Amino acid sequence: MPDQASKSDNLLAYLEYLIDHKIDPLDREEEIWARYGRTVTVLVLDSSGFSRVSEIHGVLHFLSRLVLMRRVVERVMSDNKAAEIHFEADNVIAVFAHPDDAIQAALACHQLIAREGIMLTADEPFQVCIGIGHGAMLHSETLEGYFAKEMNFASKLGEDTANGGETLITQSTYARASVKHQDKFTIDRTQVSGLDLTYYRYSSTTTD
């Protein structure tokens, strides 16, 4: 009789179950995708200046600003149909059904953080960097999250590529976005793990 692991909503627990029972997960790939696969848009938000400002002004100074940012972001994500919101240190991961909702949430985050007047230092406004990916992803419950190249791309764009005030979206996200959102972005390129990645850039400092 199957044990609880074989019925788990946690993908990694199920993979562990298969491996323990000498079953190659690749032999169950179709079943795994049917059971754990979802087509979603994932937004990855990172704050700008954490290491630099914490080093100069102390971590408590930064965290006090982070709390203010989280309040704004949580409200914006909820208002723009986020199905899931997860906070981790100075990162936010939000999941949407459609790229338009994620893009609208991202642009609203930049606008509202600026409007709220949250300052990173006396002279520097608090800004966030955002990456968005869209596609079929494997999902695992209990905070394991989403697994797919579009998840990796969104993380790379949001955490490593975008500057403060920028939203970067993958080619897949751009292709499925409405024209009114596509028109706000310009094409660009970078490398992810040695692979050329085409993406699209929005900057709140140069675009209305």
Helix content: 40-55%
Query: Measured on Cα atoms, how large is the radius of gyration?
Result: 19 Å
What name is given to the CATH topology? Answer: Alpha-Beta Plaits
Number of helices: 8
Walkthrough of the structure:
This protein has 208 residues and is an alpha+beta fold. It has a single domain, classed as Alpha-Beta Plaits (2-Layer Sandwich). Helix content is 42%, strand content 28%. The chain has helices at residues 11-20, 29-36, 50-57, 59-79, 99-115, 149-161, 171-176, 179-182; strands at 37-47, 84-88, 91-96, 128-140, 145-147, 166-170, 186-192, 195-203. Strands 1, 2, 3, 4, 5, 6, 7 and 8 form an 8-stranded mixed sheet that branches. A hairpin with a 2-residue loop joins β2 (84-88) and β3. It is globular and about 60 Å long. It starts with 10 loop residues before the first helix and ends in a 5-residue tail after the last strand. The relative contact order is 0.16. The model has no long low-confidence stretch (mean pLDDT 88).
